[in-house]
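Re: the 307-residue chain
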Amino acid sequence: MSLGEHPSISAAALARADWTYLGWQGWGLFCPASWNPVILSAMRRSGSVVLADLDSRRLELTWRSRPKRKRVDLARTIDEVAASLTGRIDRHDLRRREQRQFQSSELIYSRGEQVAAVALASELTQRAVVLRFWLAGVEKPLETARAVIGSLRDYRADEPSPWALYDLAFWLPARFRLTDRRILAGSTRLAFAGPGAVLSFSKVAAAAAAADQSDPVEWFARSHRKDRRWYRYQQLQQAVGQHEATLTAGRLPWYRWGGQWYRRELLALCWACQTSERMFEVQTTGWRLKMALLQEAADGLVCHLPK
């Protein structure tokens, strides 16, 4: 996969420096950079994402999977949302404009509350989603809502999907699901389980973590000391894009009478990006690991914006 394919560094993203890309659970959209995620669902089949700024919540994206061959009544869904609003409600048709991948209801907008909402259904993944916007204090509120709705994309679980959160952007291989997340000041780590392997992506801001950017190997070794304490591994140099990375390859021994057998394997690539002043690591563990999975995941990670 080419880094140029990731939406976070696409031409549309670079054209609006004050907007950012969010990719989560197969959903991808562009939104103002001041809208930060405060709620992130751990489930792909159903869940929600809530974005907020310093003033209030701005966007709530709620979705659920629907049974096959069952049609979703988008008009009824948006009418239920409209019933909870007060004041005059304007209705705008989106079916011929913003959305091509989805079936769409009308976009409703309450002028008094400055709240907008729309219901969408994806034939690609059999998921339905409702987007609610709180736009008080936002310049050009309807244009902002239309732009976010128009950027929304849905990706199947059996195809690579772009994830992006707090400057950690990467392509997730097909059939991997989120199992763990750790979001701290200056660092983000997301872990996934898939066919025969566990895959994790980590980002650390060197300044926030008080780490030596020239030695990412030492920092990640200390952070994984507990998890790797029984592994026997060696370290080699390997290129990842334009960066010189360190490959850690190890095996977990299993001792029995008369000898030992190696059972669980570990592969990890870590490097420092001088452009973004961040350190990154891609790690996979499992049985009979293939280097191609790790290399594919590392090549799909975006460590800095192109110049």
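The chain has a mean pLDDT of 89.
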